[in-house]
Structures are given as structure tokens and as C-alpha cells.
Write a structure and sequence with these properties.
The chain is of the alpha+beta class and 171 residues long. The chain folds into two domains: 55 residues; 102 residues, no CATH class. Helices cover 42% and strands 22% of the residues. Strands 1, 2, 3, 4, 5 and 6 form a six-stranded antiparallel β-sheet that branches. The longest helix has 27 residues. The two termini are 41 Å apart.
């Protein structure tokens, strides 16, 4: 792709609509000044406003967090993060080994990377979790308070395993 890789289609179309709105508004102003009739300005301002709203809405779809960032009632925020890997604790004598799923989220607004860790697991979850998506629930009122929803991840993996076993059994 060209130099527009970081911009989505909605951003480009939205930007074009915003530029078009400037052209329509400018045409109305110029026609009103040349003729002395303000009806040209009024006639162009409504379509210009509609283009601004449409363009802004399209740009927002790409530049602001959408499906991967949702503010829930009660102030809880959810994001979709990618699983980077599995880590384990450094245990001392007599302790059980525990594992943690580590995931990362890149904020589309700031570009900042955030890393989140799941609750402790008693057994190794397997390498098939790597690269998968998980939901992270964040409490915006208390910095650092979050929950990584790994139950849905395990359900998805189990479902795929059952489907693969059924497919393998048919051959």
C-alpha cells in the first residue's frame, strides 16, 4: 500500500467530506459577497453542515477507539488485547508453580502500549493461546485495576478442539 497505510478507508473518505464541506461553505460566502444576497450563504451552509457531520463521523470510526474500546454502564471500560505469551512465577520451596497469560493492547489514540496479566492459573494453558484476542475489563476510576477475561479464550479453544476432533473422526 501507499503512504496511507495508517489511515483507514473511513478516515480518508471522512477527510474528503470535510474538505468538500469547506469548499461548499466557501462557495456560499463568495457568492453572497459578489451578489450581496445572503441567500447563497444560507443555501450552502446547510449542506456544508451535513458534510461536516458525515465526515466527522467517518473519521471518528478509524481514529477513535471503536469496537475494541467500550465504556460500560458503571464506568467499566473494555478493550480487546492480544495474548503475547505465558509466564510463570518464580516459586520458592514448597510453592506450586502458577502461570499467567500476558497480553498487550495498543491504544489507537495515544499509540501507547499497555500490558495486562491474567489471574494465576494452576496449569500451563498451552501455546495455542498466543496470538489470540482477550477482553480486558478496566476500572477507569482506579488506576491499575483490571481483569483479563480468559474464560472466553479457553471456551473458544475447547470448541475448536472438539470441532477438529469431529472433523478428524470423519476422515
Amino acid at each position: 500500500m501507499g503512504g496511507f497505510d495508517r489511515f483507514g478507508r473511513n478516515t480518508l473518505i471522512g477527510g474528503a467530506l470535510l474538505l468538500l464541506s469547506l469548499g461548499v461553505a466557501a462557495a456560499g460566502v463568495i457568492a453572497s459577497i459578489k451578489t450581496g444576497n445572503t441567500n447563497y450563504f444560507l443555501g450552502c451552509s446547510i449542506p456544508a453542515a451535513a458534510l461536516i457531520v458525515a465526515g466527522g463521523t467517518m473519521v471518528r470510526r478509524d481514529l477513535l477507539p471503536g469496537a475494541d474500546r467500550l465504556l460500560l454502564s458503571g464506568g467499566e471500560q473494555t478493550i480487546t488485547a492480544e495474548v503475547l505469551g505465558v509466564t510463570r512465577n518464580l516459586r520458592t520451596a514448597g510453592e506450586k508453580t502458577t502461570y499467567y497469560i500476558v497480553c498487550r493492547y495498543k491504544d489507537p489514540l495515544t499509540g501507547r502500549m499497555e500490558t495486562y496479566t491474567s489471574r494465576a492459573l494452576e496449569s500451563y494453558p498451552g501455546k495455542e493461546v498466543i496470538g489470540r484476542k482477550v477482553t480486558v475489563r478496566i476500572d477507569p476510576g482506579e488506576k491499575g485495576k483490571y481483569t483479563v477475561d480468559i474464560d472466553a479464550l479457553f471456551e473458544e479453544i475447547e470448541k475448536e478442539k472438539r470441532e477438529n476432533e469431529q472433523t478428524d473422526g470423519m476422515h
